[in-house]
Specification:
The chain is of the alpha+beta class. Helices cover about 55% and strands about 15% of the residues. It has a 3-stranded antiparallel sheet with strand order 1-3-2. The protein is globular. The termini are far apart.
Length: about 100
């Protein structure tokens, strides 16, 4: 997983919607996820593969079904404000004059 993988994964609206749904559910069956998004299961699987490659989600087999679950990044990506993790001292660099 690289920063580029994550950036590509979250640059798509459908994948962001998947992450938002996973924020509400611990795990969800891929078919149910596809129905909630109004897309084909194969399309959902494609998007999940991208998220999985970025290390954001994992697929889990449960009998004949496949579930997708968050790997803990959903809270960070969905709820964090931009620049929230940048130390305050970095912000002062812009306003400081020599």
């Amino acid at each position: 997983m690289t920063f580029n993988d994550i950036a590509i994964a979250i640059a798509n609206e459908t994948r962001l919607r998947i992450l938002a749904i996973l924020d509400e559910h611990e795990a969800i069956e891929i078919g149910a996820l596809a129905r909630a998004l109004g897309i084909a299961a194969s399309t959902a699987t494609h998007h999940i593969a991208r998220l999985e490659h970025a290390g954001l989600v994992a697929r889990v087999r449960c009998g004949r079904s496949a579930l997708v679950e968050s790997l803990g990044w959903v809270e960070i990506l969905v709820h964090r404000k931009p620049f929230e993790r940048i130390p305050e001292s970095t912000h002062r660099l812009e306003t400081a004059r020599p």
